[in-house]
Give the backbone structure.
Amino acid sequence: MKTLRIGCGAGYSGDRIEPAVELAEKGDLDYLVFECLAERTIALAQLDRLSNPKGGYDPLLLERMRRVLPFVHGSAGRGRRLRVITNMGAANPAQAAKAVAELATYLGFTGLRIVALRGDDVLATLQANPEYRLDNGQCLADLGNRLVSANAYLGVDGIVGALAADADIVITGRVADPSLFLAPQIFEFGWALDDWARLGQGTLTGHLLECAGQITGGYFADPGRKHVPDLARLGFPIAQIDSSGQATLTKVHGSGGRIDRATCTEQVLYEVHDPACYLTPDVSADFSTVDFRETGENQVLAFGAIGQAKPEHLKVSVGFLDGWIGEGQMAYGGPNAVARAQLAGEIVQERLRLMGVPVQEVRVDLIGMNALYGDTLTSGCEPSEVRLRVTARCATQDQAVQIGNEVETLYTNGPAGGGGASKQVRHVVAVASLLLPRSAVALELIEEVS
Amino acid sequence: MKVSTLADLAHARTGDKGDTSNISVIAYRAEDYALLRERVTAEAVAAHFKGLLGPAASQVRRYELPQLNALNFVLPGMLKGGVTRSLALDAHGKTLGAALLALAL
């Protein structure tokens, strides 16, 4: 019986690279998938593209490809052909494909088909329909020129088309994360696009893989309670899948980490709300009866997912500029540290009032005391060191800069013994969503050959 | 075994979507799941996070996955504007699951 081996080489844009190389080299994979787009990443990439028409794709794309291309190109001699699927095209998949083709040619890996998928970018459609409303109630017209990006979450269709066109590397923009993994299963096993039970099971496998190390023992260790061996050499996951969609999850033998019922259970519920209704563009997947069986060391069978018909509309992630956030921090230690840090926070707020800095929202935390959980969950005992953090939302960059400046001036003007000041300012790109009919999206494949 | 907090019986992971946080609570041992189901109710979780949730406390929901000895809590409004707008140090709310494990049983 035919089996398919899919590995996940990245769970976010900045993820470690060498576990992906380990997968390409030793994972005996058919597909290596890199999932690198978080909610806000594509809006930031769109800003990058506005300032540089040849930019807008993932900053690590070329480094990741440089490291794995030898295994993609050399696959003829390995018995298994290795193909790559990634959403590192971000706001500019076409340019990303061109850059990868140029890199492959430069490295001497010729004859590779690199296919870009376009169609997720629906900014022009939204700009033409300013009456549309976001899920937060805001009307697009109110955003005006602050609207910077709008990307529909695509499903499997374009990727399946690219694989059918014999792509070695498929580069997309916004695609629902599990769809990156479901597409090769549909293509290889010939599943019908309304075979909801299999699509549900294949989506489960994608969901388990999509955060890479989060299922192989990453984000899991808790000394004395949950032990994970060799986290510094954490291996990334592999799913070995049969034609019914049942998947055995594992990792490269000898790599760090662990994969078992406990790590799989944490990951299956990660970012899931109602487990019976996990919506993707491809299927309404039902994880409520999913179960895991350990079939060997670092080997887990995942089964029991089903599905119902896919949603009618596509979710669109909308990025818009939303002012500036300024921040400053200063540390206090020793006897009475908390009282001095509290006084410092009061001084900064009073200074912002005196200087007439218009802040829309301000927040004062003592890191080590109440920054994560407010005052309600603290233990009551005073730490011997704390770090004041003042952060505020402002309309302009100049105003936001003053937040950090007012914290920094505590050095010579504030309470005794403050040290280690830091400050930063960032332009806020907020994200909201809306729904669009599927007919509003037109897919396009662009092929480059190295 | 003397049990004092949820951390003695369960582990947890937190995820975020928009301004909604979800926290899974998973029993280490199958025989403890019934106790978790009885004690770690949506109301208990809402009360634990009352100071952070404010009026959103009434919206906390719980889903049960007995075959996995797991509960999944969904906390709409927990992340105050979501990852992209929040002024919080941990805008994703990634550290919330650990705080839930401090729940007294």
In short: The mean pLDDT of chain B is 93. Strands of chain B lie at 10-17, 20-27, 61-65, 70-75. The helical segments of chain B are 33-39, 42-48, 50-53, 96-100. Chain B has one domain: 6-100.
